[in-house]
Amino acid sequence: MPSDSNIAAADALTLLLHNQHALAGAIEEVTKWLSENGVEDVTDNALVAIETLDTNAKAITEAITRLRQS
Prior knowledge:
Strand content: under 5%
Structural class: mainly alpha
Shape: elongated
Low-confidence stretches: none
């Protein structure tokens, strides 16, 4: 059974993960608008930011799983 501190850490990471998803969604919306309005330089940078959020979301998910199992 997970310890109280592991549960608290997993809960906090879960909230951060939800924030990651919300930020990624917002960046995707802005990126779509930028792309449709010919601002390709910024669009490319935004796509890199989304990739970083996705990569980190996977690591956070794995950490949450480990904490909830220990």
